[in-house]
Design goal:
single chain, 410 residues, mainly beta, Porin, 2 domains, binds 2-acetamido-2-deoxy-beta-D-glucopyranose, Lamp2-like_TM
């Protein structure tokens, strides 16, 4: 008999399963780590494809590795972190420093359209394409870890890269320093975005009604890894002035340019609507054989509402939509997914299944608590009615027996 050993290290960190960033380390000639990073990144690349308009979305894969061209630098060259993944795709970050701060000067992305997994049906077969940013706002004090959990967007020609859950230390000494330089977005993330003074914020937005239910699926090399059916409504709270807050609610109407990513222990559903890109991260706990929605990301540019344009949220410690592997999660009741203080999602008629899916059909449903609670009321009412019927019946039978007995004595 063989015992199947399952690595449970990560199960220990509570019930919550995080969508971790991918880790990288650059070492110098004496094996000392000089550059260390943890990065989670979402890429979107526009390219020319045969069948449809080519827009691809992918995440920095777990398999990404430190490229040989990475260096700790010396007196003449600056440190470089080069990350390569899939076929010939490389993300590079150059660092420099002065006496107090270090800084990522530039982000460069080289991608190869011949990589058909990332760029399906690309028509260009020319060599690799390289794009870069002018400057970055990755800046930290020397001897501290740069930390930015919020989404940080880098715009390049045809390419958008969204970093999140980032920890980086350049000029490091073996490991991350305990002291952190936290990016301004993280320190500001608990505050509600304030409106730009020029645009009067609406004090009341019309009720959009319940959202329409849409079907979603994410297909990887081994078939469908995520199947969903749901209606989504976003709720954003913002300040109308110093003292007043209001919320706006709107429904998601996806346009299906994007789908998501299939990984071994993580799957991503990317819902794209006109101005919104909403990523649902699902994590699989291989020890307990359960999956759940562990993270949500929303970088958006709501140009129609100046007062909340460039709103972004990222929370990677969620525990919603939990179900057993091979089964589907179902919730007919309206479900509120609180992502941040100023942002929640109302989900309607949810049926979702991730990782193990038999063909393209949902497995047995595991209902959410709200549905079970809602079921309880009809059950109680039903039981009470049944009880009443029984009492009436017994009373009738007793009555009948008594009257029979009455006749017999005559
Ligand atoms: C660095 O470490 C690796 C593995 O830990 C080892 O194989 C290699 O020989 C070491 N190199 C030096 C220069 O110490
Ligand atoms: C070092 O660089 C930072 C920005 O990266 C800047 O704010 C600071 O003033 C610089 N310090 C010196 C001493 O030049
Ligand atoms: C950073 O640490 C090194 C040694 O660990 C020290 O020599 C240096 O002065 C420190 N720099 C700052 C700006 O604290
Ligand atoms: C939107 O969020 C606010 C603040 O949490 C809440 O008061 C309001 O009831 C929510 N609206 C809807 C329709 O969910
Ligand atoms: C879907 O939305 C994306 C993002 O805004 C946009 O680039 C794309 O053109 C849209 N696709 C369709 C088919 O409307
Ligand atoms: C993430 O979501 C959880 C659960 O809703 C919440 O407790 C936590 O405060 C959120 N974190 C942030 C940074 O908003």
């Amino acid at each position: 008999v063989f015992l199947k050993l399952v690595s449970c290290g990560t199960c220990l960190d509570g019930r919550i399963w995080k969508a971790h960033g991918v880790s990288f380390e650059v070492k110098d000639g004496t094996n000392e780590t000089c550059l260390i990073a943890e990065i989670s990144a979402n890429f979107s690349v526009t390219y020319v494809a045969t069948s449809q308009e080519g827009v691809t979305h992918f995440v920095l894969p777990d398999k990404a590795i430190v490229d040989k061209s990475s260096t700790c630098g010396n007196d003449t060259t600056s440190p470089l972190l080069a990350i390569s993944f899939e076929t010939n795709n490389t993300l590079r970050m150059n660092f420099s420093r002065n006496s107090t701060n270090y800084h990522a000067d530039k982000l460069t992305f080289t991608y190869s359209l011949t990589d058909s997994t990332l760029f399906p049906n690309a028509t260009t077969s020319t060599g690799p394409v390289t794009v870069s940013t002018a400057a970055t706002d990755i800046d930290a004090n020397v001897n501290t870890t740069y930390r930015c959990l919020s989404v940080q967007r880098f715009l390049m020609p045809n390419v958008t890269i969204d970093f999140s859950s980032v920890r980086i230390e350049a000029y490091a000494k073996g490991n991350f320093s305990k002291d952190e330089s936290v990016c301004s977005r993280d320190t500001a993330s608990t505050t509600v975005p304030t409106p730009k003074s020029t645009t009067p914020a609406p004090t009341k937005t019309p009720d959009p009604g319940n959202p329409e239910t849409f079907d979603y699926n994410v297909t990887g090399s081994d078939g469908i890894c995520l199947l969903a059916k749901m209606g989504l409504q976003l709720n954003i709270t913002y300040k109308t002035n110093e003292s007043q807050r209001t919320s706006t609610v709107f429904n998601i109407k996806p346009n299906f340019t994007t789908t998501g990513i299939c990984g071994n222990n993580s799957a991503v559903l990317i819902v794209t609507d006109k101005d919104t890109v909403l990523s649902f991260f699902f994590a699989l706990n291989t020890c307990e054989q359960v999956y759940h929605c562990s993270a949500l990301k929303l970088p958006s540019s709501w140009s129609q509402w100046n007062f909340i344009s460039n709103f972004s949220v990222h929370n990677d410690s969620l525990g919603y939509m939990r179900a057993s592997l091979g089964k589907s999660y179902m919730c007919n009741s309206e479900q509120k997914i609180q992502v941040a203080m100023n942002f929640s999602i109302n989900a309607f008629n949810v049926r979702i299944q991730a990782f193990k899916i038999d063909g393209d059909k949902f497995g047995i449903a595991e209902e959410c608590q709200q549905d079970e609670d809602n079921m309880l009321i009809p059950i109680i009412v039903g039981a009470a009615l049944a009880g009443l019927v029984l009492i009436v019946l017994i009373a009738y039978l007793i009555g009948r027996k008594r009257s029979h007995a009455g006749y017999q004595t005559i």
